[in-house]
Design goal:
Length: about 200
């Protein structure tokens, strides 16, 4: 398998953490990509019309995107433990993934506003609105983190990659302030081999 990736992408990281937890990481070749909202990487666009990463090419030549689809595919190749089979637990994990993905989407949009948009055109209210979503998601995580224990399912992986991205790109947000439960959980989860191996430089 091949995955178009950038080390800084939290969505790529989620897929690689999932692959590692499933024992599949050695089967995936990393193909560097320069995904950008304006200057799109034509190598990625050739496989994924959205030009977004991660994009996975399976051993059979099928193309899969986005990260949620890729993680579900990897789960079927592995032992399937990342997504529970029982309906209530399954949808609970999938909703957690959706929340974490939404926070990462908002953070990436805020990052693009300062990184990709010319300074004269930057919209402070837009950045504020995106970061409000981030903080709302963090507050919900804080209320639930004490019950996570040693979980390493897709919901936990998504939350871990979300917090890792905030550390990487938004250190000034100080997300740990007032959120001791989330901070304590991430200290444990972030030390997993799968997280350490995928940590952006």
């Amino acid at each position: 398998m091949k995955i178009y990736y950038a080390a800084a992408s939290p969505f790529v990281r989620k897929c690689l953490v999932a692959a590692t937890e499933l024992g599949l990481r050695d089967r995936i070749e990393l193909v560097a990509a320069a995904a950008h909202p304006i200057n799109r990487d034509r190598n990625v666009v050739a496989h994924n019309p959205l030009g977004k990463i991660p994009t996975l090419i399976t051993d059979d030549g099928d193309v899969l995107y986005d990260s949620r689809v890729i993680c579900e595919y990897l789960n079927t190749l592995g032992d399937g433990h990342l997504i529970p089979r029982e309906a209530k637990a399954r949808f609970g994990v999938l909703v957690e993934q959706a929340l974490a993905d939404g926070v990462m989407d908002a953070a990436v949009l805020a990052r693009y506003e300062t990184f990709a948009r010319p300074e004269a055109l930057r919209w402070k209210d837009w950045i504020g609105g995106q970061l409000e979503k981030v903080n709302s998601g963090l507050d919900l995580l804080e209320s639930r983190a004490t019950g996570f224990g040693d979980r390493a399912d897709l919901g936990a992986i998504a939350f871990g990659c979300m917090l890792g991205y905030l550390d990487f790109r938004f250190a000034s947000l100080n997300w740990r302030d007032g959120r001791p439960n989330a901070a304590a959980w991430f200290e444990r989860f972030g030390a997993r081999d799968s997280m350490m191996a995928t940590r952006p430089a």
